[in-house]
Structures are given as C-alpha cells and as structure tokens.
Amino acid sequence: KPEETKLAVQLKKQRVMPVKQRVVREKARPVNDADTKFQAFQAIRMARADARLIGQREKKAKQAAEDEKKPKKEK
Predict the structure, then answer these.
(1) Does 52 map to a domain?
(2) Which domain holds residue 59?
C-alpha cells in the first residue's frame, strides 16, 4: 500500500538483528595413530583433484561400458 510505504522509516542502527554464531567445541581426547599419520595438505589436494576430474572419469567409465557392450572382432 502506498500510504504504508510513505510512513516507513529506515533503521540506522549498526545491527538491527544480531547474528549469533554457533560454536561447536570438541571435547579433548588423546591423539591417536590416525591423527599423527593424517596429512591434511595431501587430503585437500586429492579432494580438489577428484572434484576437478570427476567429469573425465565419468566419461571414461561410460566409454568403457560402451566398449564392453560391443562385440569384439575376432581375427
């Protein structure tokens, strides 16, 4: 409604509604063998490579499935 729009006032406070961030804290635990052997940088690199190559791998798998369906030529 045009009358209500004219009566609207801009709020000029820094924060109209505060955004509360939830902090999830893990309980302390002893360091185990898997923790010491974990290589974070390598895991991130492998995840990025997997994400980048997913299309090529799907295409290759599809091509291999099609090649399996085709009868092989005998000599």
Answers:
(1) yes
(2) 42-67
What are the Cα distances from residue 54, in Å, to 37, 44, 46? 27, 15, 12
H helices, E strands: number in the chain: 3, 0
Q: Does residue 37 lie within any of the structural domains? A: no
Structure tokens at 41: 């940088």
DSSP character string of 61-75: HHHHHHHHHSPPPP-
Instruction: Give the torsion through C-alpha atoms of 47, 51, 52, 54, to 10 deg.
Output: 130
Predicted TM-score of the model (pTM): 0.48
The helix or strand, by DSSP H or E, that contains position 8, with its residue range, turns out to be none
pLDDT tens sequence across 24-57? 999 999 999 999 999 999 999 999 999 999 999 9
